[in-house]
Amino acid sequence: MTACDLNECQIAFVELKVACAKVLCYDDFFAIFASNDCDLLRNRYPTFLRPQLSATSAAFWDQHVKSITSFMYFGASGGLAYVAFRIFFPLIGLGWIRSACAERMPPNKFQAIMDANKIYLKIAAWLIKKVLEPFAIAFAGVPLRQIELGNKRHNTWLTVFENILYRTDFCGDNYFYNGYILGFYDEHCCPNYLKKENFDKMQEGLNAGNLTVYTGTIEGFLNENLERKAAGKDYKTFTVASLLDHMDWMPHEWINSEIATLMVNMDQERGRVFWRSFADDVHSPILQNLNPIEIDQYPEVGGGYAGQVRRREERRTECWSEAKATHRTIL
Description:
alpha/beta, 3 domains
């Protein structure tokens, strides 16, 4: 697996998780990243963890490890989450959601109470759109270009709230929001990497060097990969590309260049491409050319994405050969 991110803070966070998973036992790993036991982190950091980090990530954690108190509320987006769920929600009559998550309220009961409090959801959606959006979006790291993709929808934020609260088991297994609302994870509601049954396999894979972390763009990594291939050096061929939502804010020319470069790095028979979007439809002609299909059977826990799509299988050979022929364009 290769993970790419432009944000050095995110890279430092991933490297810290990797270091902990490699050298600590499961109980310590869970205590640090689920229960926010930052004293334990500070105890383990100098001897066990710091030697596992790159120089850039070590410098980052040298600065922050002494002061961190919670991974859930760390950084600008973490501060926004604290304000949103611990201050803003109670002020507008939605504070009861925190206790519902703490007691793991069943979906039917939760949604019945939510129906009775629908007016507060509408108030929250209106306030976010009219008052908080310009500031909150900046703190959350979401570009305005991406938010504008939802402008065609009536009352975008109410739609987002309804997707989150009605289409997922919000209190039972929506770890994304439970973590922010409660400030911690428990063993019943947490990401897969924190589950005990997955730890040994994850630790084995990480110690075998099966994860590469790259600071930069996906296209930057892929071009370097092609240079290694041309030089006869070790390079990677990918079977799955999970592009998440970053193409929402990219100009069409950038999407075109990235997808074309991606295709010549993919396995020609088994390659799959997946992405998600804040738009209701496939917003880019380059992505439309991949003849994608929407995946709707697994609601996205964040609830903010109108669509999750992947490239349709019968188009694979045509798109692959076309991209290989041009490398620069697939149109």
